[in-house]
Amino acid sequence: MSVIEELDALQQQDSAIRDLEKKVRDLPLRRRQETDRVDGVGLRLQEARDGVAAGEKNIAAIEDEIETHKAIIARWEKQRQTLRDANEYKAMNQQIDREARALHDDEARLQNARAVVEDARAGVKSMEALKDEQTKFIEDYVAQIDLELAKTQRALLAAKDARAAFVAPLDVPEKRKFLSYYERLGKKYWPVVIHLGKDEACCPGCHMKLPPSKIQEAQRNTKLEDDPAKMKTVACDYCGRLVFKK
Ligand SMILES: [Zn+2]
Question: Is the full-model pTM beyond 0.70?
Answer without folding.
Answer: yes
